[in-house]
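Reply to dn_fold:

You asked what the input looked like. This is it:
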Amino acid sequence: MPTRTGETLADRLAAQCRRAGAEEVRFAADLEQLAALADTAIGPVLVTGGDLVAHTAVLRHLATSPVGPTVALVLADPPTAARTAVREERGQVVDAGPPGALNGEATGVFGGALRVGTDDLPALAAAARAVAAGTAAPTAEPGRPAVTGPAVDQLFAGLTVLGTLVFAHRVRLLVAHRVTDPVELTAADAALAGVDEDRAELRLAVKERDDFFSTYFVSTWSPYVVRAAARLGLGPTTVTVISILFAVAAAVLFAVGGSRPALVGGAVLLYLGFVLDCVDGQLARYTRNFSAWGGWLDTMADRAKEYVVYAGLGYGATQAGHRYGWALAIAAMTLQTVRHMTDTWYGVLHDEAARRPRPAGTGGGGIGDRLNAASTRVQADTGSLSYWLKRTVVFPIGERWALVALTVALFNPLVSLVAVLVWGTLAFLYTGALRTLRARWMWVPVLDTVDATLHRDDGPLATRLPVVRPMGPLTLAVVAALGPVALLVLALVAASGDDGAGGLRWLLPVALLVLLVGGLGAGAAHNGPLDWLVPAALRAAEYLFAIAVGVIGDVPPWLIFGYVLVLTVHHYDLTARLEKRQAPPPLHPATLGWEGRSALLALAAIVGFAGIGMATLGTYLLVVFVASVVLAWVVLPARAARASAVPVRTGGGAPG
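and this is what came back:
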């Protein structure tokens, strides 16, 4: 179809693909030729039909989307018989087919373009050959009509039938339409001309749905900082480092300031640090500067900054004469880490449930169904009171930082820590109860889909223990946590007396044996409806045991905080790699496992060297973590680059 400039629409798309970053653009005369291109490609491939009219930024965003290896353009246009309808859940394309075949559950239509990741190229070639030969399965459900129309639609449907995990890329603010005649082409061109592409990209850098504080107190002005940072040539990682410095400076003022001006100054620095924490992600989206390293660093930095602030508050409260300042800081860090473990694994559960058919006998009007429907309605009512209450009550990071800044500026570090603990506990109870009910409705064996030993953080001892099958792994993990809970309560009561908690040293072997009960589920199938809670339960068990050992061994509170902080860094490394789809830490076996570390701490405390043992083990784990980071992000990528004879390229094709 010729455009107003005389070039064909396919030629214009090819030029746009080059501007979007494609290193090589090829035209595929048919799907067999596209399959041959997929066979020889060594990097992601951007495939477009010949009827797409869009801003170049749309193609650039699709080509650089960080949400997954294979991403499809999805439009909000009304479904028609000539278009392929899609249904999305949590950003994943979970169904595709003719509009009438989706039973009114379509959430959009396929936009005629997709980016196929390197690992999915064999599936792309297989789908192209199957469609070309007319042998592709029409749908995942027998009896449903096959997708017809443009070849790119059939190709997209073929990929979904083959089980390829496809993520949806939605178009906001920018323009993308598929056209069939000159009238539609003229209208689409007019729509493109009516949008300032750069201004739209700057607005798109802000998350479409964020938390209340971030939306109204940060994102209203952070895009100006993003534009300034881009003009100065600052990268997202540089902004992340600057935000860390702001948070550290705030923590120092909370710790040693004491005066009202110092506390207010720390609160301001904390707020600015959070603004920069938002800016680094916005800058990455604006400049399309994504990397696995940057995503991992951002996740790790967020937690490190928060816990350094807790340390500053704990030290400041202690210096002000409050006996339990450090104890509150340790409690806040432990609570938040366990909460994050449940957040991570519930997210994995929900993503997995979205792309699986519901097991027989689990549907039909139960409380899980009703809760799921209610949550969907609230989330769809963007901007309503119920929407903001739902997003705020869970105590996200923006609200946590706002609460810390406000309470420390108006009151003191002690009040700030108490406020964080109270709200955090209520949020944990609220989300835990609702998620438990919904998870029983979903009934997806999440830990069966990943390396359970890795994400349980089992060591050599746990993996060698016999398996107790009548008791599920979650029951065993909860029992394992009860020993440290009882020991910690007894230790805290004893420590408040004149004789201290040292007399409870004889209980350490008993508590350790109870803790090791969690290892009896290491080899069991983690396929229960609530087994996604196992990693969080084991984290709680290990942290509480370490704290109890520290109290009984009369270890300085700051050292207990430091040791637990190192443990959290280790465990956040695991979850960050899971979320970013990265390989396990190279030196993970050297971390000894939760049960190995706990046994060493108990042994050190029994022989009277709890402080030395905790400091030594914490230092060792920190060294292993740093070495693992260097190996994973510096040494191994450098070796891979030297071993690669041909650079990765991005190809483009226009089927049909």
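The CA atoms of residues 210 and 337 lie 21 Å apart.
Hope that clears it up.
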